[in-house]
Amino acid sequence: MNYEDLRISKLREYLFGIINTLTDNRDYQINADMLGEIDDFSLNKIPTNTEVEQWIIGTAKRKDVYSFRNRKSYSQDTIDNLLNIGFFEQFENIIKSNNDRGILPDIENIESIECLNCGAMIMNDNGNSAIFDIQIQITYRENEVEGGLSLWK
Fold it and tell me: How far is the CA of 79 from the CAs of 30, 64, 123, in angstroms?
């Protein structure tokens, strides 16, 4: 299996496009399950029940939920902190607008992408940086047959 074919990899590519519209900083990473330096991001899959609906014909509607985290500079400067949380406000607005217009990650049979919360600081690391987090959900269709193979390929 090629990692580029995974839903998380395709979601990661989609998120690069959004972040590039929100910032001039091109010196960042979107890691998987690892948050690095200041301004880096991490996309972490949250273990949840993936089944949304299951039909008798074998088609299923499924969901994946991800935690999208960002390490930002943090201080007592109100303006910087407003900009930090404002990033996630803009991020959420772009996700909603894209979803409404059908601009979705390049994931086979994807139906929607949405933010499940508004994004917030979840941890102040050491007084100089903080971790912000927003949860993202994608919903997609899958048609399973015996052995869990997909007919939608």
Answer: 25, 34, 19
